[in-house]
Amino acid sequence: MKDTKKILIVDDNETFRNILAEGLRKRQCVVEVAFSIEMAKAMLKEKNFSVICVDVQLPDENGFELFDYIRANKENQAIIVMSSSLSPRDNLQARLRKAFCVSKCEENLLDIIKNYEN
Known about the structure:
The protein is built from five helices and five strands. By secondary structure, the chain is α/β, with parallel strands linked by helices. The protein has a five-stranded parallel sheet with strand order 2-1-3-4-5, sandwiched between helices. Strand 3 (51-55), helix 3 (63-73) and strand 4 (78-83) form a beta-alpha-beta unit. Helix 2 packs parallel to helix 3. It is globular and about 35 Å long.
């Protein structure tokens, strides 16, 4: 049996964050949420996650600022970039940081997150 995935969702959209978290919990994942980069950084100092799902557009900083922080502290961390409108530039920035990109509108988003391996 596979280990239970522990997932951190970083997104300022409360409705989307809650729907995603609930869907992942129904798939037997342990889920924690953060609504800002500052909150996510504090959580990352104390906990480890199987996968971190980050929205590109956050109120306190661009989501890529969090990637840089993660890579400096947890080089092999699995990261999924989420955006409702991922631009080609955002897609390139994510790939340069070895992050996987996915649209928030992706039909299989929950399964992609649950099964993602770095």
